[in-house]
Amino acid sequence: MRTLCASTLIGEIFVIGFAGLVAMKDPDLSMTTVWTVSGVAMVLCLLLCGMITRPGGVQLGWVLQIALIASGFFVPTMFFLGTVFAALWWASVHFGRKVEEAKERFAAQTQTQAEAEGNAA
């Protein structure tokens, strides 16, 4: 799960950076505000890559996805891109957990077979 989620978050770093460039063209937003918000969001994505397996990591990722969608109020394209990344986040969490479960079953099966071979000898 960690690899899939981290890959999604790394992609989001780039999207947030590009959205910041687009948001700079809005005359109602100051460059300082745009880059402070974008910078914090990008750093949060990077830190979250290391926190995925810790308690609350996935939930914090969902908060980030909601914020990404909400940024569409300033950069309308982000409604679409935020939704796409929220779907990618769901897929990363969902299928990442399935892969982890399959790895655990395989490890248990391999250990059981090794024990059976050791007892037969």
| Largest β-sheet summary | none
Helix content: over 70%
Mean pLDDT: 92
- End-to-end separation: 38 Å
The tally of helices reads 4
Instruction: Categorize the overall geometry.
Output: elongated
**Beta fraction of the residues?**
under 5%
Poorly predicted runs are none
Order of helices and strands: HHHH
Please, could you describe this protein's structure?
The structure is a single chain. The protein is mainly α. It has 4 helices and no strands. It has helices spanning 2-23, 31-51, 57-70, 77-120. α1 packs antiparallel against α2, α1 packs antiparallel against α4 (77-120) and α3 (57-70) packs antiparallel against α4. The longest helix is centred in the C-terminal third of the chain and has 44 residues, at 77-120. It is elongated and about 80 Å long. The protein starts with a helix and ends with a helix.
